[in-house]
TrEMBL record:
Its EC number is 2.1.1.297. This is peptide chain release factor N(5)-glutamine methyltransferase. One of its GO terms (biological process) is methylation. It catalyses: L-glutaminyl-[peptide chain release factor] + S-adenosyl-L-methionine = N(5)-methyl-L-glutaminyl-[peptide chain release factor] + S-adenosyl-L-homocysteine + H(+). Residues 115-213 form the Methyltransferase small domain. Coiled coil: none annotated. Keywords: Methyltransferase, S-adenosyl-L-methionine, Transferase. NCBIfam families: hemK_fam (TIGR00536), RF_mod_PrmC (TIGR03534). The gene is prmC. GO terms for molecular function: nucleic acid binding; peptide chain release factor N(5)-glutamine methyltransferase activity. The keyword Methyltransferase applies. InterPro entries: DNA_methylase_N6_adenine_CS, HemK-like, N5-glutamine_MTase, RF_methyltr_PrmC, SAM-dependent_MTases_sf, Small_mtfrase_dom.
């Protein structure tokens, strides 16, 4: 059997169970240890029986047991980097790449290549903070999380990607003891009672659910954040697309002097809130 035949059969099986063909393709490509260019060049090549058995076993775990492909291969791609993931962290999403892009753009616009202190609050796998540190050497990044299991994964990613970041075990600001130029956060924002696909349920509840309306963490953060910000500073949030107005209200309530800018993701959904102080966002 060739890679092409294996992919065709697996894709048919996935469609029958309403699973994503792209996920099946990623699984086959990653297990074959080929980059996309090599994979498509080698589609006509025969696969050996051991590889075929391993792939079908993992395919069935994805299709029949709803185990995310990223858990089966052990990593997820974010901003061009392979981040280790597990059941203890949220799988990085493409919309979060957009948050990183926006933070880098706003840094270039308002901080003028100065060295800045950055905090990634509730870091999970570390994908936001580590990526910022890799992309901009002037950012001195700290990453924090309440979950020690998540921080183990983040630490592995720090070492694997050779990122210069500091790791802090903290329940929000409890163990944070300095002021930052930029605080970025993608806290849990799914409402507690919202129905989830079975595959999403394989990710940690602590990284998914944010209270009855999904906004509890945003109010907690905005209520307590001011002592941890420098005079000219930026807060950057990702949030659910129906939470824009509530989060703006929290910012106006707790940070009356701030400038608020909200932006859409690539699907034109309201996804990001940026809050500036001093000259930032003016």
């Amino acid at each position: 059997m060739t890679y092409e035949q294996l992919l065709r059969d697996a894709s048919k099986k996935a469609l029958e169970k309403d699973k994503e063909i792209e996920a099946v393709k990623l699984l086959l490509m990653e297990l074959s240890h080929q980059d996309p260019h090599e994979f498509y060049l080698n589609l006509k090549n025969e696969v050996d029986e051991t590889f075929k058995i391993d792939f079908i076993n993992k395919l069935n775990q994805y299709i029949l047991q709803d185990i995310p492909v990223q858990h089966l291969i052990g990593h997820a791609y974010f901003y061009g980097h392979a981040f280790d993931v597990s059941k203890d962290v949220l799988i990085p999403r493409s919309e979060t790449e957009r948050l990183v892009e926006e933070v880098l753009y706003l840094y270039d616009t308002y901080f003028d290549q100065k060295e800045v202190l950055v905090l990634d609050l509730g870091t999970g796998s570390g994908c936001i903070g580590i990526t910022l540190a890799l992309e901009e050497s002037h950012m001195k990044v700290s990453i924090s999380d309440i979950s020690l299991d998540a921080l183990k994964i983040a630490s592995k990613n720090k070492d694997k990607l050779k990122a210069d970041v500091s790791i802090i075990h903290s329940d929000l600001f409890k163990n944070i003891n300095q002021k930052f130029d930029i605080i970025v956060s993608n806290p849990p924002y799914i409402p507690d009672e919202e129905a989830l696909e079975n595959i999403v349920k394989k990710e940690p509840d602590v990284a998914l659910f944010g209270g009855q309306l999904g906004v509890d963490f945003y109010e907690k953060i905005l209520k307590d954040i001011k002592p941890f910000l420098k005079e000219n500073s930026l807060i950057a949030f990702e949030h659910g697309y129906m939470q824009k107005d509530v989060i703006r209200g929290f910012a106006q309530k707790h940070l009356k002097e701030a400038t608020i800018v909200q932006k859409k993701d690539l699907q034109q959904k309201d996804r990001f809130t940026f809050i500036g102080f001093g000259d930032v966002l003016k």
